[in-house]
């Protein structure tokens, strides 16, 4: 007999209850005429045995219940057995066997579900540990990077003595490298923080047109270095129009910057990157068009997933965090972000935001 079926201190009450139920039904069966069938009450102890002690206990309980139900035809005896009595007992026995089979399946399902739950709990613990580690690591990395940037700026401003033109160029390159690393660390920290705590927005009326112009002005030197021309197109309108949304200006500026940098990085020298601003009935739409290599069809659904880099030349660059951060920000604004290939060469990254308060 299975150890699970043997009563322990913790299971003694349940075991006693099962025995008590069997005895109660047995007394009713054998103290009344054969015409009275109480075998249909045996499923209660069978199910309880299965639930508390497992499949072996359910098999034992089912076997005992069937034997007792059938033996009541002859015990205690003294009454003529009719075909109707035999059929009734056979049907009751079949019902008990079916109950035992179902309880055994139910136990197997509960064991499988319990194992899956345990595996999920372990996986969730690993995910939390990994995210806590990444969050702590990125937070700690900011301090030496900020210290390095401050030191390089001191050298560039000749606080430690004069520097040659060649040294200034080297210092500028080192400073850019540190700034890029700092931006990556801050992006990684923000991504993990947003996933665990949610993105907290400071909402106010924001004019997407003015914001786009600010970002273009900031990134113009970067684009000019690659001989890429940046332009703003107002869609169907021939004039500059304001696109107001209720949003967090700083976070939306990060979306513009990430998408525009992405377009610049994947455009060929001498080409154009265009920002298209459109106002619709209930949405403000921003599209950023580039003339790069485009996106493969298989990679389009995964572009905005965390750490997704893909296998094409276009997607293999970077960490896969920038677009994921953009998705976090836009979705926090109740908006939609997407990407698609252009009819001509290149790709289009766009987002839609609900129309906000108009302000002069």
Describe the structure.
This protein has eight helices and seven strands, in the order H-H-H-H-H-E-H-E-E-H-E-E-H-E-E. With 360 residues, it is of the alpha+beta class. The protein folds into three domains: 12-121; 123-197; 204-354, Histidine kinase-like ATPase, C-terminal domain (Heat Shock Protein 90). The strands form two sheets. Strands 2-4-5-7-6 form a five-stranded mixed beta sheet. A two-stranded antiparallel ribbon has the order 1-3. Strand 4 and strand 5 (283-289) form a beta hairpin.
Brief overview:
By secondary structure, the protein is an alpha+beta fold.
> Please, what is the average pLDDT?
80
Instruction: Please give the radius of gyration in angstroms.
Output: 36 Å
User: What's the CATH architecture name of the largest domain?
Assistant: 2-Layer Sandwich
**Strand order of the main beta sheet, please?**
2-4-5-7-6
- How many DSSP E strands? 7
Helix content: 55-70%
N to C succession of SSEs: HHHHHEHEEHEEHEE
What percentage of the residues does DSSP assign to strands (E)?
5-15%
Number of helices: 8
**In oligomeric terms, what are we looking at?**
single chain
- CATH class bucket of the largest domain: Alpha Beta
CATH superfamily of the largest domain: Histidine kinase-like ATPase, C-terminal domain
- What is the approximate shape? elongated
| Termini Cα gap | 84 Å
What count of structural domains?
Answer: 3
Fold blueprint:
Blueprint: H1 12-30, H2 43-53, H3 55-71, H4 83-156, H5 165-197, E1 204-207, H6 208-225, E2 229-233, E3 244-247, H7 249-265, E4 272-279, E5 283-289, H8 322-332, E6 336-341, E7 347-354
Parallel strand pairs: 2-4
Antiparallel strand pairs: 1-3, 4-5, 5-7, 6-7
């Amino acid at each position: 007999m299975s150890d699970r079926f043997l009563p322990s201190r913790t299971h003694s009450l349940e075991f006693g209850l099962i025995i008590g139920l069997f005895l109660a039904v047995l007394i009713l069966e054998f103290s009344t005429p054969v015409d009275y069938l109480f075998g249909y009450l045996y499923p209660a102890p069978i199910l309880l045995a299965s639930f508390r002690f497992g499949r072996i206990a359910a098999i034992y309980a089912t076997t005992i219940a069937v034997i007792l139900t059938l033996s009541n035809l002859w015990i205690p005896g003294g009454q003529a057995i009719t075909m109707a009595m035999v059929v009734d007992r056979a049907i009751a026995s079949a019902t008990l066997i079916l109950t035992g089979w179902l309880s055994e399946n139910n136990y197997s399902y509960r064991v499988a579900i319990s194992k899956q739950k345990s595996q999920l709990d372990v996986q969730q613990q690993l995910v939390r540990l990994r995210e806590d580690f990444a969050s702590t690591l990125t937070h700690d990395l900011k301090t030496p990077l900020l210290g390095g940037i401050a030191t390089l700026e001191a050298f560039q401003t000749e606080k430690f003595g004069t520097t040659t033109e060649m040294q200034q160029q080297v210092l500028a390159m080192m400073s850019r490298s540190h700034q890029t690393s700092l931006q990556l660390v801050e992006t990684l920290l923000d991504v993990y923080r947003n996933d665990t705590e949610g993105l907290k927005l400071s909402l106010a009326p924001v004019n997407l047109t003015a914001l786009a112009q600010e970002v273009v002005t900031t990134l113009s030197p970067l684009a000019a270095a690659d001989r890429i021309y940046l332009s703003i197109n107002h869609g169907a309108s021939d004039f500059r129009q304001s696109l107001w949304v209720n949003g967090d200006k700083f976070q939306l500026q990060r979306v513009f910057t990430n998408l525009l940098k992405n377009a610049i990085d994947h455009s060929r020298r001498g080409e154009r990157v265009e920002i298209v601003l459109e106002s619709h009935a209930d949405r403000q739409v921003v599209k950023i068009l580039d003339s790069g290599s485009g996106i493969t069809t298989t990679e389009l659904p995964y572009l905005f997933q965390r750490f997704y880099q893909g296998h094409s030349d276009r997607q293999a660059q970077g960490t896969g965090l920038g677009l994921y951060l953009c998705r976090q920000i836009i979705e926090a604004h109740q908006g939609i972000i997407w990407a698609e290939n252009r009819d001509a060469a290149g790709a289009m990254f766009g987002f839609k935001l609900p129309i906000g308060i108009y302000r002069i």
